[in-house]
Amino acid sequence: MSLYDRLNANRRTPESPDPATHVEPGELPAWAAPDQPDSGAFPPPPPVFVENGSEAPTGSQSGVEVAFGLAEAPPPAPVVDPLAGVKEKAAQELFVRIGTRLNDSTLTEAQLHELARKELAEIVAGEQLALTIAERNRLIDDIGADVLGYGPLEPLLDDENVTEIMVNRFDNIYVEVRGRILPVATRFTGEPQLRRVIERIVARVGRRIDESSPMVDARLQDGSRVNAIIPPLAVDGSSLTIRKFAATPYTVTDLIGFGSLSPQVAAVLDAAVKAKLNVIVSGGTGTGKTTLLNVLSAFIPGDERIVTIEDAVELQLQQEHVVRLESRPPNIEGRGEVTIRDLVRNSLRMRPDRIVVGEVRGAESLDMLQAMNTGHEGSISTVHANSPRDAISRMETLVLMAGMDLPLRAIREQIASAVDVIVQIQRHKDGGRRVTHVTEVHGMEGDIITLQDAFAFDYSSGFDPEGRMLGRIKPTGVRPRFAERIADAGINLPMSLFQEGVFDDPHPGGTR
Q1: How far apart are CA 175 and CA 166, in angstroms?
Q2: String of DSSP letters for 345-411
Q3: DSSP 157-195
Q4: How many CB atoms lie within 10 A of CB 68?
Q5: Per-residue pLDDT for the chain (512 aa), expressed as one digit of tens each?
Q6: Between the CA of residue 31 and those of 13, 145, 162, 183, 436, what are the distances in Å?
């Protein structure tokens, strides 16, 4: 059964509400807070925001109102830890005792934590503090988190509702929750503690950061993307940005429920991927390109060999037959660099059925286009651009970066021949991330690449009183040419999907 058939079979009516989201009058879902509007962003809405392990303030203004900026909130007050001096002293002593073993590859994480906890117990006992057993254990845990973990970032990393953590400096931290940027009271004790956390993250993935190499891209064990930059490039102190990814990858049903996709668009994209059309996901920073790329890759049949290529591994493909490749920066001597372009060229010798490039941002775009034009159909990638037309221009510029001195018309012919569909995703002012265009690349007319929208977002509905966008993506009524290729692949895709009002989005504008 096709995705369209499954979605159509499960189509809900007012008489048969979705049991997963339906709430009786007067009730609220477990995660909801009173009078909290829904932004339509993914991930799902969070419960009351928590800072430093305690609930947000309540009173005349609810904690959620304060947390999400719906009511005027005072700036977070500095956190005064009476044991800060003890923690710093104990952490320094621990470094003296086991510093050389922190990056010992022969020790597992469990062994390292056991060793550190044993040493910390002796250090804390030597301080002769008047603490209860529970307080002593909590102190040991806090120091262990500072040295072996991520210090004050631990609770933010554990909170599933926090999607991004932005450390501007050791005492200035912001998070993204539900598409909105919020300050938090959590902070590091100082620049040295922040540097230790950065160095530990970087060391775990075999990267380094120091004055000679002051910025780095890395990842956490759960796949979260990390960017760090330190002085002298970061003038006010070290800066750390962590973009978290859901432990369980989002599915197409999730994105439909969040209002990021309509069932029509989902059915068309499912058929396009199965029919081996080459798809480019276009969008700005933080719009959800990687999330959408994950969803599109889930449509690839499980019997095909997939090669993924990324700067830092983020994709979470569910198929079995997958080879994941990751680029490598140069070592301290400036040697050993392996670029995305090197990996794309190497992947052509790996007998791939599909090539999935996390993002093309340089000369590798030429190799990607050549792969698409030489039998590696069904390839998927992302590019930074604000519209489908801008995506074409950006790919032209990236190909020119290869230094091949190709004429512009030859580059455009390569793009027009290689790319079949451009999916544009955008983050709107209400925090919602939504697909705004599904655009077909028709071909060349003279020196211009012609595009035709199959679906486009309707902005005419405006916003509701809570600031949520009411518009939704609609079919333009034009039957795309790639529908014939889908039919030739033996995939049933009703042409009624490209007609307005036939299979409407049950959650228009990202509302639920």
Answers
A1: 6
A2: HHHTTS--SEEEES---STHHHHHHHHHTTT-TT-EEEEE-SSHHHHHHHHHHHHHTT-----HHHH
A3: HH-TTEEEEEEEETTEEEEEETTEEEEES---SSHHHHH
A4: 24
A5: 566 566 556 554 444 444 433 444 444 323 223 343 444 444 444 443 444 444 444 444 434 444 444 444 455 555 555 566 666 666 767 666 666 666 555 666 677 777 777 777 777 777 666 666 776 677 777 777 666 678 788 888 888 889 899 999 999 999 998 778 899 988 888 898 898 888 888 877 777 788 878 888 877 777 788 899 999 899 999 999 998 877 777 889 989 988 898 999 999 999 999 999 999 999 998 888 988 998 999 999 989 999 999 887 788 888 889 999 988 878 777 788 898 889 998 998 899 999 999 888 888 888 888 888 877 889 999 999 999 999 999 999 999 888 878 899 999 999 999 999 999 999 888 878 899 999 999 989 988 999 999 999 998 888 888 878 888 899 998 889 999 999 999 998 888 888 876 555 444 444 33
A6: 24, 28, 14, 21, 28
Separation in Å, CA 400 to CA 162, 215, 404, 447: 39, 26, 7, 17
Phi and psi (nearest 5°) for 200?
Answer: -70, -40
Which residue, 431, 435, 428, is CA-closest to 179?
431
Q: Using CA atoms, how far apart are residues 167 and 194, in angstroms rounded to an integer?
A: 9
Tokens found for residue 156: 């933010």
Q: Which residues contact 339 (CB under 8 A, 6 or more apart)?
A: 327, 362, 364
SS3 per-residue string spanning 36-80: CCCCCCCCCCCCCCEECCEECCCCCCCHHHHHCCCCCCCCCCCCC
Q: Using DSSP bridges, classify how beta strands 50-51 and 54-55 pair: parallel, antiparallel or unpaired.
A: antiparallel
Instruction: Beginning with the edge strand found earlier in the chain, give each strand of the sheet holding 472-475 in spatial order.
Output: 322-326, 306-310, 354-357, 380-384, 279-283, 421-427, 433-445, 448-458, 472-475
Distance (Å, rounded) from C-alpha 93 to C-alpha 71? 45
Tokens, residue 119: 């040493």
Query: Exposed/middle/buried for 223, CB within 10 Å: 0-12, 13-18, 19+?
Result: middle
Domains of the chain: 152-245 (3.30.450.370), 252-510 (3.40.50.300)
Cα–Cα distance between 328 and 339 in angstroms, integer? Answer: 7
- From the list 245, 326, 227, 322, the residue with the least C-alpha distance to 291 is 245
Long-range CB contacts for residues 194-198, cutoff 8 Å, separation at least 24: 194/151, 194/167, 194/169, 194/170, 194/237, 194/238, 194/240, 195/230, 195/238, 196/146, 196/147, 196/151, 197/146, 197/149, 197/150, 197/151, 197/153, 197/240, 198/228, 198/230, 198/238, 198/240
Phi, psi angles (nearest 5°) of residue 244: -85, 155
